[in-house]
Input
Amino acid sequence: MERVAYNVGAMDFFAFTNDPTRNNYADIQKKLSGGDMEELFNEAKAAILKSVLKTQEGDRSDGFRRGHDACYAYCNISGMGVTLHLQTEDDGTGHKRPAGEGDYLLADSIMLPFFLLDRRVHVKAVYKPTNSKALTLMKDAIKEVAGIPEWNAFSLGKGNFSYISLDSKVIIGKVADMTTARREAQLAAFVRFICELTTDPFDLLVAEAQAQVTVRA
Amino acid sequence: MKTIIVEHMGIAKEVAINDQLGMILEEVASAKRGRFAYVENHVSGIGDPKCTTPGVSDKWFI
Output
């Protein structure tokens, strides 16, 4: 819930600007073909806030949220909320429902609520081109600047990774090269240093994100 | 195969989880606050019908 409150707070910083060096609306402008960009911005911002507040209020009534609730389960691991994506099967009506064996549900993957520090891309994912409406593009543009996608959990499933370490302790696999091992050790040392400065690293990350939002606004 | 108790649609249920993921959850549970994770060759996009080529990357998390 802290994160939802942060998203609502961060959204208040955002205001419309026509300055092309300070916005990312070029593609949206082409789609809108003469419409009012500021009106579209306000509509998109209101829609994002409405969705975030709906989540905050615990309203799970729409079909998307009901489907999501059916396919995910939650557990508490030492005070940290972990989401499990369940194995699903088609229920015959085109909807996914959890599959099970006997009395058990089956976990397909786990999603850990960690904050992404850095990434090194080996193969860039390719997606089919989408023909999104101007409103969707504007919502995506606002979310990108707000950093909202960065709060997403990362998913670990069957064979979708070759190595994982936690606090520099190897859990699964063998690191590919020594450069990576050294970089990992440096970053782990940096994280330990930060943790000595604050009692809660999450507070530090929120402060950092808010500072970035202030600079960008 | 391990099982853990979860909350599913407001009800406590038992979920079976494979050994690899169970091991990760155990380590997460015993880690201190301020944990740091590194994942190599993390594949994303699988299962997304719009994804034609899954992405592969190394990621650092806290």
Summary: Chain A touches chain B through 69 residues (CB under 8 Å). Residues 213-217 of chain A have pLDDT under 50 and may be disordered.
